[in-house]
Write a structure and sequence with these properties.
single chain, 246 residues, mainly alpha, elongated, CysZ/EI24, transmembrane helix, Sulfate transporter family protein, membrane, transmembrane
Amino acid sequence: MLDAAVKALSQMISPPMRSILWRSIGVALVLIIVLAIGLQRLLSWFATYGEVWLEGLLGPGWHTSLEVLAWIVSIAAGLGVVFGAVFLMPAITSLVASLFVDDVADHVEREHYPAERPGVALPFSQAITEGVKTALLTILVYLIALPFVLLAGAGFLIFFLATAWLLGREYFELAAMRFRSPEEAKAMRRDNAATIFTAGLIIAAFVSIPIVNLATPIFGMAFMVHMHKRLSGPRPELIEPARQMR
């Protein structure tokens, strides 16, 4: 697993991969700015008007609790783009990965597995659908964990573990679906859940590093291409022709 991570890191900055790296960083930055500004506007609305709306909906007995929540939200709105960038980064990387899955996988397979059958490019709509589903699931999980972050440090651990599970799941299935049907890819992920979650911890650590995490789609995809190859094991159709003739 560490060998796969090292190979992914080294290839990530190789000349053939740099064009993809810069394009993915550009897309990620645009998404971060747009989504973070949207989040800031939403938080500002809640801090200004949402408290009154919720109190009318829930009743005056919730006044104190909603007042405290509005105060917390107003602080979050003040942080705005910074808060949004940190909170939304894993979701954004899921979307970006779905755009560049085949570009990254093709480079990894050509360099490290030239004698093996290449994967089949995912239909664009399927890749985007998988990315959007993971991004929405990521946001939902983070919203559930957010109160724990505000009330106790354990929330950050929940964030980290959730990120490991979500991103490990996303990147592995994208890599596997180049060789398998979606159902087979998901079944393989479930059969190797512990290994893929452990690999996801490495991706979660990577996405936790500011600035560097803009390259998460490239690292995560390259890493999981290697992991899929290792978990697939030797298959007759992937053996070099010269070795088959021996």
